[in-house]
Amino acid sequence: MPIELPGRGKRLDEDPQKNYQALTEVLSKEIVHAGEERYALFGHSMGALLAYGIARQLRHFRAELPLMLLVSGCAAPARQDSQRYNKIRTEAALIEDLIKQGGTPKAVFSNPELLDMTLVLLRFDYQVCGSFQYMKQAPLSIPIHCFCGITDAISTDCLSQWRKESSRLVTFDWIEGGHFFLRQSEERFISVLRKRILQSQDEMIHENFVTA
């Protein structure tokens, strides 16, 4: 079930949210309102940072937490370089960063209208990420499964700090590819993702049996 951000897709008539804290509050309230009893949160890159923030907000609201947090292609919250996003201001710098990350179809760069739309959304994304401020809090009480691209620029040290964000199991899976490894090695990624989800479900069933 994709989460659409204000200003995109079916929510195109809404004003895009530029602040990380405000955006995670909006999304977490919508999840509570949806009333899903059993679900996990998955996010890639900025989406992973949002998923983390949503889980934190849900705990703040004393709402039911997701069964697990699945994060992909994202440095741990404690290692986020928010200032990096604030330094990328010009259109040329945005395009350069898009090319560096990969994952954007070449057709986008040869279509001025499509490129302009992409850059507008990217600016909002960078404002959201640039407004993120890490605050050390008690670890989440749910498993965190991290997925990483072998040739992604995110360092192992920046990824390993996800261990500090959970009091439960934290796993790391390295998959062939760069920042968008989940597209470059899609079958492998889905296979590993499924394995981790089933693993956490089995552990929960075992815990419920032991405590019953």
Keywords:
alpha/beta; Rossmann fold; globular; 2 domains; four-stranded parallel sheet; 212 residues; 4 strands
Compute the number of structural domains: 2
How many helical stretches?
9
The CATH class designation of the largest domain is Alpha Beta
CATH topology annotation of the largest domain: Rossmann fold
Instruction: Please write the string of helix (H) and strand (E) elements.
Output: HEHEHHHHEHEHH
Classify the secondary structure makeup into a structural class: alpha/beta
Which spans have pLDDT < 50 for at least 5 consecutive residues? Answer: none
User: Overall 3D geometry?
Assistant: globular
The CATH level-2 architecture of the largest domain is identified as: 3-Layer(aba) Sandwich
**Sequence of strands across the biggest β-sheet:** 1-2-3-4
CATH homologous superfamily grouping of the largest domain? Alpha/Beta hydrolase fold, catalytic domain
What's the story with the biggest beta sheet? 4 strands, parallel
Mean pLDDT: 91
**Rg (C-alpha, Å):** 18 Å
Give the N-to-C terminal Cα separation.
Answer: 32 Å
Total beta strand runs: 4
Q: Approximately how much helix is present in the residues?
A: 40-55%
Structure notes:
The chain is of the alpha/beta class. It folds into 2 domains: 9-78 and 134-211, Rossmann fold; 81-131, no CATH class. 50% of the residues lie in helices and 9% in strands. It is built from 9 helices and 4 strands; from the N terminus they run αβαβααααβαβαα. It has helices at 20-34, 46-60, 82-87, 91-101, 106-109, 112-130, 156-160, 181-184, 186-211, and strands at 41-44, 69-72, 144-149, 170-175. The protein has a 4-stranded parallel sheet with strand order 1-2-3-4, sandwiched between helices. Helix 2 links the parallel strand 1 (41-44) and strand 2. The two termini are 32 Å apart. The mean pLDDT is 91.
